[in-house]
Amino acid sequence: MLSLAKLLDGAPPLQVLDLGGLNQQNLDFVTGGGHRLFAEDLVLNYQTAFTPQERLRGDVDPEKLERFLRDCLPFPDAALGAVLAWDRLQFLFPAAASALVDRLCRLMAPGALLLALFHPENLASAAPLTCRIFTGGAIQAAPRPSVLPVEPFNARAIERTFASFAGVKFYMTRDSLQEVLIRR
In whole angstroms, what is the distance from residue 141 CA to residue 59 CA? Predict the structure, then answer.
């Protein structure tokens, strides 16, 4: 998180996308540095866009997947300076996660950073996290009340998922989460 905080500190105004939904701490952190925050509750929109059967099968009409991505990510190419993906990729079926990463790669400016968190790969389910950024870049992550199935991502799967990006760095958090910082 410190690399992302450094990017935001002193940078010209950037557009930052938070896929965890809106909260006051993240709004204050991002806009306090002169940047613009766009918040999208990806898990809620995903649950609304796809039926439980579609989410379980992971087999969905490509047009429906494209509509979901277009609705969640209505940005021009290279418009985003940073993305806070949190743990959201693990709550999407694999084809949706892959399509989302491909779209983010297109929407992020060269040199932009994406922050992602991954639950341990041995979990079958977890609660999506509500993540709040505080002064200095410290993150407080608290589980939401609902528990959902989790797609496992080991280090190799994460590297493959972000293969079209310029760089991937791994960090461990004290909450047994893997923090991953990805540079476009």
Answer: 31
